[in-house]
Amino acid sequence: MSPDPFKPREIRVSREGPVLVVRLDRPERRNPLTFTSYAELRDLFRALRTCEDVKVVVLRGSGGHFCSGGDVREIIGPLTERDIRGLLAFTRLTGDVVVAMRRCPQPIVAAVEGVCVGAGAMLALAADIRFATPDARTAFLFVRVGLAGCDMGACALLPRVIGHGRAAELLYTGRVMTAEEGERWGFYNRLAPAERLHEEALAFARELAAGPTFAHGITKTQLHQEWAMGIEEAVEAEAQAQAICMATRDFRRAYEAFLERRRPVFEGD
Questions:
Q1: 202 & 235 share domain
Q2: 164-173 vs 154-162: helix axis angle to the nearest 10?
Q3: Each residue of 35-79: pLDDT tens digit?
Q4: Residue 219's Cα: distance from chain center in Å?
Q5: Are 73 and 128 in contact (CB under 8 A)?
């Protein structure tokens, strides 16, 4: 996917070879989300479902912060004037961003630094892999503005990542989860110094992009779909998924590389 056909106003999109870097780009306000940026993120991740030349996505913020959540002036104020139909249209829009992120076949690596709260925390949670700086501050703030913690799929996603009790604590209180807690609880895969965060996230993304990307897409699909399956359904679904992967050229490339005692070069087909 070339960034040229997609010309967003509030997010920035660039290419690093097979890796697409998506940057929330309002650093003067710690990258808050607006009606426009929600729609741009939704449309971008939907478009990636049919984009074969993008193998991995890195999602990050600008100016030393990830995302400060929904913009108080541009979103919360106008929402107080909407009727229930307008409110539901908005909450469905925000949820559609998470659905689009989970459905796109490319692994998403979130690179989190500084503030990562509210809807911003949900963007990080919807990613597949999360790197963070030691000063990253993550909070699901919905309760602090008089709302429930069940926003954008939080009550489904967060317990699966860090466990029910820890998720309940964060969603009931809205308190900040430190980067150290996040790594210890499994929310963050690893911590990196601020000056190294983007490079490490990008290096990891490139490593994934060099792998069997068709198979990565299958892995992501199964990780998502098997939440709602019993063990027998999951085993059967994985049997079918793996059989499909065994029919790919990448599977044969790996076998031939093994015989020749070299590292396989995957092409994603």
A1: no
A2: 130
A3: 999 999 999 999 999 999 999 999 999 999 999 998 878 888 888
A4: 15
A5: no
Q: Does a structural domain hold residue 25? A: yes
Of 136, 172, 175, the residue nearest 154 (C-alpha): 172
Count the domains in the chain.
2
* Three-state SS at 58: strand
- Contacts for 32 with CB less than 8 Å, ≥ 6 apart: 26, 67, 68, 69, 70, 71, 72, 74, 75
3 state DSSP class of 112: strand
* DSSP assignment of 120-152: HHHHHHHSSEEEE-TT-EEE-GGGGGT--S--T
Are residues 234 and 125 part of one domain? no
Global pTM? 0.91
Same domain, 69 and 184: yes
> What is the domain range of residue 38?
11-209
Report helix, strand and coil shares of the chain as percent, to nearest 5: 55, 15, 30
Q: Which residue has the higher pLDDT, 117 or 229?
A: 117
DSSP assignment letter at 13 = E
